[in-house]
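> forwarded from #structure-qc
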């Protein structure tokens, strides 16, 4: 499917778009592939994730265990948020950039199917 067809069908809700979220994360390593605003969003989510996980580990030594555990759990929740945000960034960038769309489809990061 060509990019113009993809954008048109997606805006009409005629497509089911599947993203390999784990592979999508690797696209953030390529400079210029993902727009800077989306890269920055991903950096902020991952920074908060690591911060809460580290804070949770440190808190185990200083406060009640349930405070530390809550920080660790929140860090893990942010981990899943970062993964899903990477997938959404791939869809958003694919809608804006024909070259990126072709690359994502060729690498099987983005799969486009008609909605059933």
């Amino acid at each position: 499917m060509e990019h113009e067809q993809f954008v048109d069908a997606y805006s009409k809700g005629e497509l089911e778009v599947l993203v390999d979220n784990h592979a999508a994360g690797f696209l953030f390593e390529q400079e210029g592939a993902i727009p800077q605003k989306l890269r920055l969003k991903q950096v902020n989510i991952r920074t908060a994730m690591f911060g809460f996980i580290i804070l949770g580990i440190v808190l185990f030594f200083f406060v009640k265990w349930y405070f530390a555990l809550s920080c660790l759990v929140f860090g893990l929740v942010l981990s899943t948020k970062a993964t899903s945000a990477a997938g959404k960034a791939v869809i958003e960038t694919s809608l804006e950039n024909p070259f990126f769309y072709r690359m994502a489809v060729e690498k099987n990061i983005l799969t486009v199917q008609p909605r059933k």
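QC bot note: The mean pLDDT is 90. The first strand starts at residue 15 and ends at 19.
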